[in-house]
């Protein structure tokens, strides 16, 4: 099996950003939804996802780099047991020391008796005896069978409309098998949030793996997210700004009426409570509405302002010293 770095086409010393970039590229190419008739692509998709999960976990990556776990994330046998037969030059390829070095068997014509070493390491399970059978120096050792493993996890990407994410609207996801599931969005959901669907991954001897759904919140054409709040630039007419009044304002929950104070200027911010995103605490943020006064190109308005401009108008730039 290729090592995890090769599976992602990155160097062993790759940064986390490089690993994420490589995974996104491969996941896009190999996603089961795009390769329904290509089981090999689905299999590789699972492998690169598993490689990504291990290499982006600092502890697991360190364990893998030290050779403590394998490409499946399972602990390796101590000292490399189970690694094959004797190597040329009289070295036992299946037996390795703490640093990976092979034990070298030397002697006048027969292998050195290393059962004492095994007894010290494994509590006397290696028995002395003549020959290489059950009573020989290796007689007490058998490879411990690995515990049955669950199937691989499968990664999915689900695009969610901006308004749905703010309202925690339930979503439907279609799995690679064609099965559809309804999922609930958690409080605090944001772009990149991961939702685990237990038992919806690939089958395995110890049960199915899980489906890992990454949420991608779609951008909105006029709403912007700021923490748990939502920002909106709202155009108002010059008479609405000068005289004040109620205006209709869009929100993620539908339009509402907003009171514009008399004499409002561009940049004034008004607040609509509870119209933002739901935080992890369950409390909803607000919608912050920035007024943008729309001044029309109107000859009649220009004529009125020309007459008004000479009547002791104030200098709005006085605070800037100009």
Condensed summary:
By secondary structure, the protein is α+β, with helices and mostly antiparallel strands. It contains eight helices and 13 strands. It is 23% helix and 21% strand.
Protein architecture, described:
The structure is a single chain. This protein has about 325 residues and is α+β, with helices and mostly antiparallel strands. It is built from eight helices and 13 strands. The strands form five sheets. It has a four-stranded mixed β-sheet with strand order 8-9-13-12. Strands 3-7-6 form a three-stranded mixed β-sheet. Strands 1-2 form a two-stranded antiparallel sheet. Helix 2 packs antiparallel against helix 3 (about 40-55). The longest helix has 17 residues, at about 40-55. It starts with a helix and ends in a 14-residue tail after the last helix. The model is unreliable at about 80-140 (pLDDT under 50).
């Amino acid at each position: 099996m290729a090592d995890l770095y090769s599976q992602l086409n990155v160097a062993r010393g790759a940064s986390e950003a490089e690993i994420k970039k490589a995974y996104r590229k491969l996941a896009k190419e190999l996603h089961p939804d795009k390769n329904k008739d290509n089981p090999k692509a689905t299999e590789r998709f699972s492998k690169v996802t598993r490689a990504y999960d291990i290499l982006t976990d600092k502890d697991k990556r360190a364990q893998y780099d030290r050779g403590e776990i394998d490409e499946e994330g399972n602990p390796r046998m101590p000292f490399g047991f189970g690694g094959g037969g004797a190597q040329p030059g009289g070295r036992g390829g299946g037996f390795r020391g703490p640093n990976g070095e092979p034990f070298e068997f030397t002697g006048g014509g027969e292998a050195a008796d290393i059962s004492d070493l095994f007894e010290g390491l494994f509590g006397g399970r290696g028995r002395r005896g003549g020959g290489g059978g059950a009573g020989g120096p290796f007689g007490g050792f058998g490879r411990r069978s690995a515990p049955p493993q669950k199937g691989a996890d499968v990664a999915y990407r689900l695009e969610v409309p901006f308004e749905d994410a703010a309202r925690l609207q339930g979503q439907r996801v279609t799995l690679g098998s064609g099965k559809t599931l309804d999922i609930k969005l958690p409080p605090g959901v944001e772009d990149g949030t991961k939702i685990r669907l237990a038992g919806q991954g690939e089958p395995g001897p110890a049960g199915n793996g899980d489906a890992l759904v990454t949420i991608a919140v779609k951008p909105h054409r006029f709403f912007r997210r700021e923490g748990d709040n939502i920002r909106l630039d709202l155009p108002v007419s010059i008479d609405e700004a000068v005289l004040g009044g109620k205006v209709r304002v869009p929100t993620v929950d539908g339009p509402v009426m907003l009171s514009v104070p008399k004499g409002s200027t561009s940049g004034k911010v008004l607040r609509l409570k509870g119209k933002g995103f739901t935080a992890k605490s369950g409390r909803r943020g607000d919608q912050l509405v920035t007024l943008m006064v729309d001044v029309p190109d109107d000859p009649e308005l220009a004529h009125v302002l020309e007459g008004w401009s000479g009547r002791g108008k104030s200098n709005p730039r006085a605070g800037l010293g100009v």
